[in-house]
Amino acid sequence: MILDCDLNSEHFSTADKLFCLKELICNNRFIEKIKPSRKVIMKEFGTVKDEKVYLFTLTNKNGMSVDLSTLGATITAIRVQDKNGKTVDVAQGYTSADCYTDYPVGHAGGTIGPCANKIDYGTFELNGQKYELEKNKDNGRTHCHGASEGFDIKNWQYNFVSNGMKFTYIKKDGEGNFPGNVTVDVTYILTDNNELKIIYEAKTDKDTVLNLTNHSYFNLDGEENAEENSVLNHIVQLPASSQYTVNSEVAVPTGELKKVENTPFDFRTPAVIKDKINIEDGQLKIGAGFDQNYCIDGYDGKNLITVAKVLSEKTGIELDVKTNLPGFQFYTANHLGKTTQPLGKSGKRYQKRSSLCVEPQFYPNAINMQDFEKPILRKGEKYDRTIIYSFQTQK
Most exposed: 81, 164, 312, 347, by fewest CB within 10 Å? Predict the structure, then answer.
């Protein structure tokens, strides 16, 4: 069902209002005639702080579809066909907005910001001024993923664009104690090549720290495979990473880069996760599995580089990840499975190591590290980074 499209909403352009009105009047029959490149279904997804949350479904000509929520500019579902022609939802997610705000769901599918990953001791210095942030991890030592002011629990504005959706959030100066009034746009484009492009753009009126990523949890066997260790049969290749950042005892980079060669972190050639995750290694112990930032060879901040390839032999579905960010977190969902988690879309609670994440990013704690590229957005500059999740099916 397509619900009332809020034709009085400031989020809609005149063209979008006309499109929505015709959708409603025609009961969706004329969508393809009016907008041949765009088929969007809009539904209510709950309420947060007395604001309606909406869910949009994008569909391409191949039948691939993606669900996107205004809450957190979040991916809640990605459906692709497997080698037998069956539609498989490969992204973990939940059935309503309150699941994301009232329970710990590990930021599932959300847009992470203002600064993804950890900032050690919850402090940084910018232009000679010290900023103290909320410390929400590691017994009050580190700041992570924006803490209680994270972008993934904000209700974003929305606009329709060709083949996709644009979500906008305006962070006020001092919100979360990060400087600057920052306007952030996250645009999702679903192509007919089964690519989900995520384009991050931002501008600020004051120098600030900004490090944005997406935190989707993938199981290419299908999200209903929620049992513990169910992702460990996936085959992973990280072809552009010959180094990773070494972590401290609280999983914050020490500044040392280490070669992956002769370590469990070497995925330059395809390997099954279960063949590496239980190898005796101090860094694996710190993360309780894979939870490491990988460095991207050949990074220049502009060109898109393929950083990960993930394959399910069961379904034949392959996920490729491209980005122009300098690193990415490879995470095997080692901390899912809390009894306080809500049930997922299939009515099951997602357990430990039932999925994996590939989160392109600036290196964790980079703002405090001398030799890491710092995620500083200057007044007058434009933040412009991209992540592409693309899918293909091996027969």
Answer: 347
